[in-house]
Structures are given as structure tokens and as C-alpha cells.
Amino acid sequence: MADWVEVLLVRHGESQANAEGRFASRIWDPHLTEAGRLQAQALVRQLEGLEIRHLVSSPLARARETLEPLAQARHLPVEILPELSEVDLGDWDGRHWRELWDLEPFAAWRRDPERYPPPGGESILQVGRRVLGALARFLDQHPPGLTVAATHADCLKAAILVVLGAEGPAARAIYSPNLGQLLLRYGGGQRWGIVLAPLWPAEGALWRQRGHSSRNQ
Questions:
Q1: CA separation for the pair 79, 59 (Å, rounded)
Q2: Which residue of 66, 86, 175, 188 has the fewest CB atoms within a 10 Å radius of its CB?
Q3: Separation of CA 114 from chain center
Q4: pTM of the model
Q5: What mean pLDDT do residues 119-145 have?
Q6: How is residue 24 annotated by DSSP?
Q7: In this structure, what are the phi and psi dihedrals at residue 9, rounded to the nearest 5 degrees?
Q8: How far apart are CA 114 and CA 21, in angstroms?
Q9: What total number of domains does the chain contain?
Q10: How far apart are alpha carbons 17 and 11 in whole angstroms?
């Protein structure tokens, strides 16, 4: 493996659950809305000009559907990594957030999703460790090159917390919209870093064409 390889984590496009304000992690697997399908098409244009080696995805439909246009455009297979799945929301899965708003466990989870996970669900750092662990195993076993990984909002937030060694409440300072993106670099042995990259696509493509190496930063 090269000294550093990069992984672009992408939150899925708008799903039916997003449009309805409902949670979806295990018992309900909603598809993308029409807006979400347009966002998936936009991802192809955003990443135009970048050399992509691998595509990986959460097993959930909204993540897989987000990568479908990119996979077709690049003629690449999509490998499913179960560990990229949404945070396990336990008893809250499938419920509308308004049903939970006035409940103290929900308020506590919003304050600190590490100390107060959903009843029967996962803490935020558990999510980050499983996401990064799965990506590290994948990268260790495959040829180097940019990997695009379709996943979920709390997975992006959790990955940031683990890389930075931050505490659970810090997750509430991070916002990931649909199609939000996080660029990470991996150096083997669970060494991770966050890349402050130019905006995609044009600036990113130019950045690579000039032979920029993140290892020199």
C-alpha cells in the first residue's frame, strides 16, 4: 500500500425517511426520493476528473442507490461493507423525531450521543470505530487509490470524532447534509487524518494533476 491513501465518505442523498422526518436504521430501509436521485446524479458530475479506484457502500438502499450512477459512469463494482451502515437507533428506529422530542432520553442523546445512546442502540464512538475499522481492513487488502464510500450522517460525524479523539457532545457541532462529504487519508495501522481538500470537482482535479502529495503536509 502507498504511504497514504484517501477515502471520500459521502452521505447518501435524500431518502424517504429524511423527507418524512423519521429515523431509519435497521427495521426500515427506505429508498431515495426524486431529489435524492438527482443528488446521486450530481455526485457523478462533482467527481468528474478524479481517478477513483474503488466504490464501497453501506448495505442500506439509500446508500447503494447514491452510488449507482457513479458506478455506471465509471464501470466500477460497488462492494458492500456492512459496517458502514447507519447508527443502530434501537427502540427509536422508524419513529418520527417529533414523537421523541419531549422525552428525556432523546434530549440526553442529543446532548451527548456517546454517554446516552438510544435505548438498545449504539453510542457514537462505537459507530466511528466500526466504520474506520472496516475501511482500514478494506484498504489494507486492496490496491491503493481513491475510494468513495457511501454511508450515513452519524457515520461521518463518528469518524471525525474518532480521528480527532473528540468527545461525544462534539458530534452536535458537526452537520452533514445529504451528499455531505468527508475526505480522510489512511496510512496503515489505523493511522487516520482529515484532509482539508479543495472543493470538487475542478479544483480537486487540478490539485491532483499538479502532483500534490498529502504526505508532504
A1: 9
A2: 175
A3: 18
A4: 0.89
A5: 97
A6: -
A7: -85, 130
A8: 22
A9: 1
A10: 14
Q: What is the largest CA-CA distance in the chain?
A: 53
* Beta partners for residue 7, in sequence order: 147, 184
Can you tell me whether residue 51 is helix, strand or coil? coil
Nearest to 71 by CA among 5, 149, 163, 165: 149
The confidence score (pLDDT) of residue 212 equals 40
| pLDDT tens digit sequence for 155-208 | 999 999 999 999 999 999 999 999 999 999 999 888 999 998 776 554 444 344
Domain CATH number, residue 53 = 3.40.50.1240
Residue owning grid cell 504526505: 215
Which three cell numbers, joined as nine digits, stand for 87? 447508527
Q: Are strands 192-194 and 5-11 parallel, antiparallel or unpaired?
A: unpaired
Query: For residue 40, which of 171, 179, 136 has the smallest C-alpha distance?
Result: 179
- Quote the CA–CA distance of 184 and 9 in Å, as a whole number: 8
β-strands 5-11, 181-186: how paired? antiparallel
Give me the active site residues, please.
12, 86
Q: What is the domain extent for residue 169?
A: 5-216
Cross-sheet strand order for the sheet of 78-80: 78-80, 52-57, 146-151, 5-11, 181-186, 192-194
Mean pLDDT value of segment 84-99: 95
Look up cell 470524532; give the residue.
161
Q: What is the pLDDT of residue 217?
A: 30
Residue 173, Cβ density class (10 Å: 0-12 exposed, 13-18 middle, ≥19 buried): exposed
d(CA 125, CA 100): 22
Q: Please say whether the beta carbons of 35 and 13 come within 8 A.
A: yes
